[in-house]
Amino acid sequence: MAVLKSKDARKLGSEELGKRVGELRLEIAKEKANIAIGAPVSSPGKMRDMKRTIARILTIKREKGK
Questions:
Q1: Which domains does the chain have, with CATH numbers?
Q2: pLDDT band at residue 40 using 50, 70 and 90 as cut-offs
Q3: Which of 6, 12, 24, 25 could crosslink 16 through cysteines, CB 3.0-4.6 Å?
Q4: CA–CA separation, 56 vs 53, rounded Å?
């Protein structure tokens, strides 16, 4: 999954944002499992980007809730 920019995330509905967070968390879990079994890391910066995207989405969801 590609990085979701703030302006693009603001256009999406709350349900869609929640779906994206779930997908990103699943992808992070898969990467962690691959690392645990000793598989080589495909892209070291990918985990960092996914975590930042999750934080960005959750921040926007919180802003919309207020």
A1: 6-65 (1.10.287.310)
A2: confident
A3: 12
A4: 5
Chain centre to alpha carbon of residue 14: 15
For all residues of the chain together, what is the average pLDDT? 90
Coil, helix or strand for 6?
Answer: helix
* pLDDT higher than threshold 90 for residue 37: yes
Buried-state track 11-46, b at ≥16 Cβ within 10 A, e below 16: ebeeeebeebbeebeeeeeebeeeeeeeeeeeeeee
Euclidean distance between CA atoms 61 and 40, whole angstroms: 34
Give the CA distances from residue 34 to residues 29, 30, 40, 64, in Å, rounded to whole numbers and listed in that order.
9, 6, 8, 35
